[in-house]
Design a protein that fits this description.
The strands form 4 sheets. The protein has a 10-stranded mixed sheet with strand order 9-8-7-10-11-12-13-19-20-21. It has a 5-stranded antiparallel sheet with strand order 14-18-17-16-15, with no helix packed on it. The chain folds into 3 domains: 98 residues, no CATH class; 137 residues, Vaccinia Virus protein VP39 (Rossmann fold), CATH 3.40.50; 89 residues. It has 395 residues and is of the alpha+beta class. It is built from 10 helices and 21 strands. The two termini are 44 Å apart. Its EC number is 2.1.1.77. One of its GO terms (cellular component) is cytoplasm.
Amino acid sequence: MSVPHFDGAPSRLRSLVEDLRRVGAIRSAAWAEAFARVPRHVFVPEWYGQEADSRGITVWRQRDAADRDAWEATVYSDQTLVTALDPDTAERVGERAWTGIPTSSSTMPSLMAQMLEDLGVADGHRVLEVGTGTGYNAALLSARLGDRLVHSVDVSPGLVEAARRRLAAAGYRPHLAAGDGQQGFPGHPAPFDRTIATCSVPRIPAAWIEQTRPGGAILADVSMGIEGGLVRLTVNEEGRAVGHFTTTTGRFMAARSDAHAYRHPGRAPYAPRAGFRSASLTAADIRAHYPFRLLLAFHLPGAELVYHVDDDTGAMSLQLQGRDGTWARAPIADEDTTIATYGGSADLWRRAEAVWQWWNDHDRPAQDRFGYAREADGRHYAWHIPDGHRWPLDA
């Protein structure tokens, strides 16, 4: 799709940069200048807006410059904009409307700014970006460092080519490649000073460590089932990457090896309902505290946190579920309730209650009080920085 032109771009771009500085997402003059030089509308000529149909099912409606005012306002707002859907799940349900799972997006500018600030680049640094997407982040890196120092890879050849055209239209020509970004940049160029990923991974891939120079840094979203988060790690001579979760919070779509769709992992059937019990941990407690969910993921690797809807009543609950089919849930409509229902075993919710007790006993540490390491042999673990208590994450 060609890039629409509109005269109001400079003023809207200035307003966006001012907003990002005001909320503290942009903290340095160098990144303020980079954001001010890159027009976001070039990279998001169209997107999918989320709606709900009469049955409550999520519908993605295609939006573009046909509605000029809405397009301008949305593109220069601090929003994540979905730009592609999984073709295996996408189904057309109306005019310019589909159901399906998002596979690519333009991340909200405030999160991008915070991550780029956290990355800690300096003049002359070579950067690898995993997840080219629309090309907007590669343009920002190019504006800050010069495009010859920026390498970006995406699993989708179509996205890469579209990003290449948009980058050229904005005046940038970084090194782009199509491929599985979990394997790093094809051809393994000279080591990078910084690696940044705009997709989530279950652990830091070995290729990222191998392609980042000793002393260099990796910034990525590690997904651990129940929760995940952004980690900033330093690579050492032994092939380890060690660091901590950042104060910046944000989650990304999962990395994929297939250019078009996600792998859909199989799960054990739900265990039959076994009973219910009073509980000291509620759905409200879990939903309200991100650092606690992160800690819960450390303790229950391989488990998931999902929303469950009762087939008979339509009541919604927050549910923990294990790989073996065990589950435990608490209702959302009455989030202060202390009743948990379980299937297979009551142990899952009991373990979560023990984590809740630990978190409170340790003064509710924030996420940056937890470290993360990926060893050269592939093992990865988290730890509580103040006392060194460690949790292996290999489920």
